[in-house]
Amino acid sequence: MTQDWGKRTKLVHQGARRSQYGEVAEAIYLTQGFVYPSAEAAEARFVETGADEFIYARYGNPTVAVFEERIAALEGTEDAFATASGMAAVSGALSAMLRAGDHVVSARALFGSCLYILEEILARYGVEITLVDGTDLDQWRAAVRPGTKAVFLETVSNPTLEVIDLKSVAEIAHGVGAQVVVDNVFATPVFSRATELGADVIIYSATKHIDGQGRALGGVICGTREFIRNTVEPYMKHTGGALSPFNAWIMLNGLTTIDLRVRAQAASAQAIAEALQGDPRLARVIYPGLPDHPQHAIAKTQMGGFGTVLSLDLKSGKEAAFRLLNALNVAVISNNLGDARTIVTHPATTTHQRLPEDQKIALGITPGLIRMSVGLEDVADLIADIRAGLDMI
User: Fold this and answer.
1) Contact 324, 314 (CB under 8 A)
2) Which among 63, 50, 55 is positioned nearest to 19, based on CA atoms?
3) pTM over 0.90
4) Could you say which of 213, 232, 254 is where a domain stops?
5) What's the rounded Cα separation, in Å, for the pair 47 and 315?
6) Residues 320, 353: one domain?
7) Bridge-partner residues for 150, per DSSP?
8) CA nearest 109: which of 355, 371, 373?
9) What is the pLDDT of residues 294-327, one digit of tens each?
10) Residue 359: inside a domain, yes or no?
């Protein structure tokens, strides 16, 4: 298929495979195995699998392959491997490329499960981990060394929305031969420029904006064909973290509308942040689209959009945060994000609750912090809902 299509065209058509029936929507191939015409054909396929040949659903599947090709085309990478969840993508990408004695430098501001992978799982098996303030380039320079295998970061951190200067970090990492691995969920595939800014491996939780409807788990690792097929695929097919065909089909349907959804959600997030900025009950309104955000300029050039998530830090702490959460009528309390529904959560007691208190404070995860993933509701209703909740404090 042509590679000259625009983004929205790729999101609808890229990688389409049609059976002899000529179906319009992608088919769901709910099969765990595939039949070979002969014993010789089975032997040949296990020796070398063709571009449109399959062995076992854990290794690959026609529906999953369409999703992989489509997301790779969107992200601008040569290939992709779809996984059972976003965390399967994070752990799979890192575990596939690392071994005992390797050194990884990572931004400290990470989702709790990502920190667990680094500090508990990889460290347990002999990988050396160095954590740095991701926004401080001098710390990156001091931490990397000849032989550093990889650097890892969230391009926009969860939940305090720090934006890391990806281009500069990539230059530092590549200077010592390290690969740049990024969790790009908050930047979204719509606003991503990770490939052109120097990322080597780009990871998404497809559970978030790619599905966008809160229906299914999924993840994806994007990178060079050599990395995906010779490093990631052998690890993933033997450890079993592959995406199910049904979930791949759901993700394909999500991709057809992701550009429209994310742009609308980001516009609403901007409007909410601007409406709430300066409210006396809030210590901070955190959103990269606000001029007072410390990395506003970086976000403007690096993303081309500011994302669908903002955070509110209430002056009165946890009690006030809980009162606000419990008073909301439009937004719902949950721990997902990137959904069509506006979702709010209290990171200190949910997604990041396992962190020691001193680490929470160091990362800016205060008792009053609320993370808000903005949905597709009428933005006036969302602003009124939040203001009414603030009045209940």
Assistant:
1) yes
2) 63
3) yes
4) 254
5) 63
6) yes
7) 104, 179
8) 355
9) 999 999 999 989 999 999 999 999 999 999 999 9
10) yes
Strand order across the 148-154 sheet: 79-83, 219-223, 201-205, 179-183, 148-154, 103-107, 128-132
User: What are the φ/ψ torsions at residue 92 (nearest 5 degrees)?
Assistant: -65, -45
Residue 265 in domain = yes
**SS3 of 326-348:** HHCCCCEECCCCCCCCCEEECHH
Q: 333 is in which domain, residue-wise?
A: 261-391
CA atoms within 13 A on the CB side of 370: 32
Is there a single domain that holds both residue 177 and residue 275?
Answer: no
User: Could you tell me if 212 and 254 are in contact, meaning their C-beta atoms sit under 8 angstroms apart?
Assistant: yes
Strand partners, 343: 332, 373
Residues ≥6 apart with Cβ < 8 Å to 376 = 261, 264, 265, 268, 340, 341
Determine contact, residues 13/1, Cβ cutoff 8 Å: yes
**For the domain that residue 309 is a member of, what is the CATH number?**
3.90.1150.10
Q: Within this chain, do residues 234 and 311 fall inside the same structural domain, yes or no?
A: no
3-state class of 43 per DSSP? helix
